[in-house]
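Objective 1b: paired records.
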Amino acid sequence: MSEWVALLIAMVAVCAVVLAVVVLRQRRVGEDDDPSETPDVIEYMTMMIGVVYAIVLGLAIAGVWEGMGAAQADTLREAQALHEVSARAEVLPPDARDKVRSQVDAYVSYVVDTEWSYMSTNEELSPKGTELLDQLRRTVTERAPENELENQAYQPMLERIATADEARNSRGQSVGPTMPGVVWFGLLTGGAVTVGMLFALQIRRSTRELLLAAAFSALIAFLLFLIWDFDNPYGRGISVTAQPFLDLFPNLS
């Protein structure tokens, strides 16, 4: 089942529960009940709970969005560093140049074709990808420069490989959910309390009030879904892709 279909079902279910509770509650209320008699303190508490929960939701969304942005930046940095290694290998003799470029292509192909799905399934980097990057590092490190031009390219190539390795490690740290369980407990509990406070205001069965209650409940469900989806940058519907590698290595696509 698509995650967006699951979101739609969840939003409809939340709306249905809220509307059902309102209708059933109104059937049990006597005709002499006056909703305007709701104490002012309840309205004040409802407002404060809504404001506090909105702040918590905003911070959570900002946090997971920043995490996804950092994951995308790490992917681009890794791809760019490897592209620079391949480009700087131009000054090497044909056999050494071809070996370096073939190892770069092998690593990029493995990341795009295999490791991306491996990260989603296992929530960690694959040992094979680490091995391929280590082979590239050894190939560049073990060959001594033979002239001044190669000497000028040698250190920058090592630095780019180190940058790619650093970006790869950062990518590994972003794999899997990052939101602590206690935060999720607070978000879900706060959402339930915020929606539940609607009933403390004694809303009636008028079309306007029912629509507002349903829309508010659906909005809470949608925001929680966004947080859940962004919480795993590489493994869910709105995820970081390997497109930077494909853009910089079009021959492999």
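Objective 1b, second protein:
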Amino acid sequence: MAEFKRKIPGEKGLLIAVEGMDGSGKSTQAMLLVNWIRALGLPVHHTEWNSSPIVAQATKHGKDTMRLKPLTFHMIHAADFADRWSKQIEPTLEVGGIVICDRYKFTAMARDGARGVGQATIEGTYSFAREPDITLYFDIPPEIGYDRIVTGRPTLKFYEAGLDMGWTMDPFESYKILQGKIKLIYDGLVDQQRILRVDAMGSVAEVQSRVRQLIGNHIDLDNIQPIDENDRMAEMTRMSTFDWAALEAENS
């Protein structure tokens, strides 16, 4: 069993990161985790990789013009993360809440590392952000993830496929190469006990059951102050449109 860092004295709240290969069902499981914690009456905030509006236009322009070099890509995503850290993640932690990050700095280590950006550079860029209390890595066989991503698609996007690296002009072959490099880095992080591997094969409900068991084994939710009952009911009503059937279909 992986050993995770003890919370540094003075650190508040709980920080849970979620990582995974493309097609692993990671985002589905992150949202289910959010809803489970919210149902317990605990304050929780969900944030996703590359979702800050501040850098969205620059990212789109760079992709559209195919002008993003690996280090530029790295810095743009870091700027996105820094904005969300200062406006969403850190404020929630400071008041003792729970933050679930759908991708954290380990995504940069894997994706940017696969493009040749040094791990020391990546660690330095993200040094302002604390280590998560736990990082769940949803692992699936590469061929399963590949099939889920490419089925029914005539082609892949330029950067998604890793065509910027010039390994091959075939987008599907380039994608396989990129994903293979990414997985090697994730596997290394598992070996270093920085992230915890989750078997992501099976139904959505089965995987979520594993997630909750791992959270229970590694995280003490009892130390989080519940929110007021009236606020809890209002929040649950607002979030009551979760469609399990659709999630099962996405991951079948």
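The CA atoms of residues 59 and 220 lie 38 Å apart. Strands lie at 14-20, 44-48, 98-102, 134-139, 196-199.
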